Amino acid sequence: MRPPAPRPGWEVTMRAMTALARLGAGLTAVSVACAALSGCSSDVGTGGLAVSKTDLEKDITQRLQKAGEKPQTVSCAENLRGEVGKTTRCEVLLSGSDSFDLVVTATKIDGENISYSMVPAASKDQLDKLVAKTVSQSSGVAVESADCDGGLDGKQGAEAHCDVTAAGETTRHTVTVTKVEGLMMYFHVQPAA
Question: Which residues form the DUF4333 domain (predicted)?
């Protein structure tokens, strides 16, 4: 039995929020309602100009707490090197398995200060889980698995393709980012043409 396709125009909101369990049939909220995470700076430490991963983790945690969210953990992959355009990824775990990534990019170097911006993203594993929940809720059919070809960065027009298995049949779906506002990423999940 082939799972019904999500309704045309069905838009998903990715926000990183503790309430993934409260996903609606028409709209999935994965939310971070927080102040813009840009223009941050940090003093240089030893070993070259960089924002340490510990400082990034503390900054993200504090900003989320100010916005009313309490992350269980924030884990950055590495220090952010003090060179414009350099990036690192940080995973934010809000509760249970509700997590999302932030791509942190150095935007300006001013003496010993590094300014950086952050945009939302979903790793492959995070996107697999989100697509499975999204298709299951929009179709009313239990999804056995979703296997996406990669993650999804918070850039308008970005796409990922996912094989979704339900009732023993696998169908291909396309996930397309329709817009990004701050740390909110909106995207469509629909059967591939």
Answer: 36-111, 123-182
Closest CA to 134 of 20, 2, 17: 20
Query: Can you say how many angstroms the Cα of residue 169 is from the centroid of all Cα atoms in its chain?
Result: 28
Tokens 């990922």 label which residue? Answer: 160
Neighbour-count burial of 126, counting CB atoms closer than 10 A to its CB (0-12 exposed, 13-18 middle, 19+ buried): buried
The amino acid present at 151, given as its one-letter code, is G
What confidence tens digit (pLDDT) does each residue in 116-130 have? 999 999 999 999 998
Residue 187 and residue 84: Cα distance in Å, rounded? 28
Distance, in Å, from the CA atom of 148 to the CA atom of 138, rounded to the nearest integer, reads: 18
**pLDDT surpasses 50 at 37:** no
Say if residue 15's pLDDT is above 80: no
Closest CA to 184 of 129, 122, 123: 122
- A 10 A CB-CB count for 146 gives 24
* Full-model pTM: 0.69
pLDDT, residue 186, reads: 85
